[in-house]
What does this fold into?
Amino acid sequence: MNDPRISAIICATVAAWLGYTIFFSAEAPSTFLMVLQWTFFTVALAGLGAALGRLVRGRR
It folds into this structure.
């Protein structure tokens, strides 16, 4: 994706959904699922940070 705005929107949406799933889940997931959720949550936050960095750098 060349447009950092779209990347930021997608990463923020995924991070919000996974954050809701992780922090407000009514039942405990299996260990494998918990590791997978935290991995994707971390990657989504890193992608959001990179997209926001590209947006800030592009406006200068």
Notes: The chain has a mean pLDDT of 92. The CA atoms of residues 33 and 39 lie 10 Å apart.
